Automatic annotation (TrEMBL):
Annotated S-adenosyl-L-methionine binding sites: S187, C220, P221, G222, G223, D239, D259, D276
Encoding gene (name): rlmM
Reactions the enzyme catalyzes: cytidine(2498) in 23S rRNA + S-adenosyl-L-methionine = 2'-O-methylcytidine(2498) in 23S rRNA + S-adenosyl-L-homocysteine + H(+)
Subunit structure: Monomer.
Protein name as it appears in the record: Ribosomal RNA large subunit methyltransferase M
Lineage: Bacteria, Pseudomonadati, Pseudomonadota, Gammaproteobacteria, Alteromonadales
Molecular function GO terms recorded: methyltransferase activity
Short name of any one Pfam family annotated for the protein: RLMM_N
Occurrences of domain Ribosomal RNA large subunit methyltransferase M THUMP-like (ranges): 84-163
Active-site residue list: K305 (proton acceptor)
Length: 355
């Protein structure tokens, strides 16, 4: 058995399966996904096992919407002797390249999280043994592949490796953030994660700098506006609801009780457009793309609320609308990214930027 193992939020397994099947066949790697609802992962089995590594290299992780992490899975070890798990795992590493990091992981589910302590404990002898056998560099090396051991129970694990230029740098593919107590809603974490995911850290100083003008459509009570204000930006907060009083007192927020679909900014110097309106994804996608195509803003960050079923198809539809708007406006250079972030639930965050 060899394929690609992908992690996701519990309940999104079939969306990952549809996406990986579609995108793998586009690069001529064929196989079939194995899913179990609420398992928090998907295994895509390759018909030609030697293509698993190719898939882990060529399937762009950055462009996967629903996967948090992926690795070329070289095998599954079952019925491990609880007194010696190291020997069979070591045997599975036989044909692995030299790795620069080891991650012993589990699914982000109730059952999976119960394995977290065990995974932390076992990673110590595993790391030592792999180093002794020259399967792991003595010091962590970010340019080498990452070895993954993904336990589903304490005697069963999938083993493989990912490539550091085409994976998530985060353990379990999860960005953990602390809720800022002054923020008016938990939604604030979604925009924080989106900025940290889509904007390279070294560009924060320019693209997220204080003084920039922003528009927040569907702003109330102000969790997203809070993120912009914290970074020193000036925000036009558009919503008929009530804004958090402390945010208004900063003097950086202008409250606009209007319809986000009709709102026109007073000045032409908007850098960020953010939008969290609960509306049909196609409608929001068209609005966002129109703002960017007409250069009413430089970058847009927005959430698309997804239907319960066929979420991948729904996302494809929304992304196509964006591409069509950009094409009609003859915008050739733009960046479009979409990710089901850790803090998202039934929604995907999209970033659109004029280049
Ligand atoms: C999920 S909440 C936004 C939460 C906000 N991002 C936060 O962090 O606190 C969605 C908001 O969109 C607003 N909304 C929905 N449709 C709208 C529209 N057409 N124009 C303006 N606001 C709208 C609602 O009033 C609601 O406050």
């Amino acid at each position: 058995m060899a394929g690609l193992l992908l992690y996701c939020r519990s309940g999104f397994e079939s969306d990952v399966a549809n996406e990986v099947q579609d995108k793998a066949s586009a690069i001529e790697v064929y196989g079939y996904p194995q899913t179990k609802l609420h398992s928090g992962f998907v295994l895509f089995n390759c018909y030609q096992p030697e293509q698993a590594e190719l898939l882990a290299k060529k399937l762009s992780f950055e462009h996967l919407i629903f996967a948090r992490q992926m690795f070329a899975c070289q095998g599954i070890i079952e019925n491990m002797d609880v007194a010696d798990r190291v020997t069979p795992i070591l045997a599975a590493f036989e044909n692995f390249p030299l790795c620069g990091e080891l991650r012993v992981e589990y699914a982000d589910t109730t059952d999976g999280r119960e394995l977290s302590k065990f995974c932390r404990k076992i990673s110590v002898p595993l790391r030592q043994t792999l180093r002794k056998r020259n399967k792991l560099t003595n010091k962590e090396n970010a340019s080498k592949p990452v070895a993954h051991i993904f336990f589903t129970t304490s005697d069963k694990a999938y083993v493989g490796y990912s490539f550091s230029n085409n994976n998530s740098a985060l353990p379990l593919g999860i960005l953990r953030l602390k809720f800022p107590h002054a923020a008016p809603s938990r939604s604030t974490l979604k925009l924080d994660e989106a900025f940290q995911t889509f904007i390279p850290k070294e560009e924060h100083g320019i693209r997220l700098q204080g003084g920039l003008q922003a528009v927040d459509l569907g702003a109330c009570p102000g969790g997203w506006t809070y993120q912009l204000v914290q970074r020193g930006m000036f925000v036009q907060a558009v919503d008929n609801g009530a804004m958090d009083q402390a945010l208004m007192e900063t003097g950086q927020v202008t409250y606009c009780p209007e319809d986000g679909f009709k709102f026109q900014p007073k000045k032409n110097n908007v850098y960020w457009l953010v939008c969290d309106m609960i509306e049909q994804p196609q409608r929001v996608a068209k609005l966002m793309a129109t703002w960017v195509a007409e250069e009413r803003c430089k970058e847009a960050m927005f959430n698309l609320k997804l239907p319960m079923k066929k979420r991948y198809e729904s996302m494809q539809g929304a992304l196509l609308i964006i591409q069509q708007v950009m094409h009609s406006a003859q915008v050739k250079k733009y960046q479009l990214q979409a990710k089901h972030l850790y803090h998202n639930r039934e929604e995907v965050t999209v970033h659109l930027r004029l280049m």
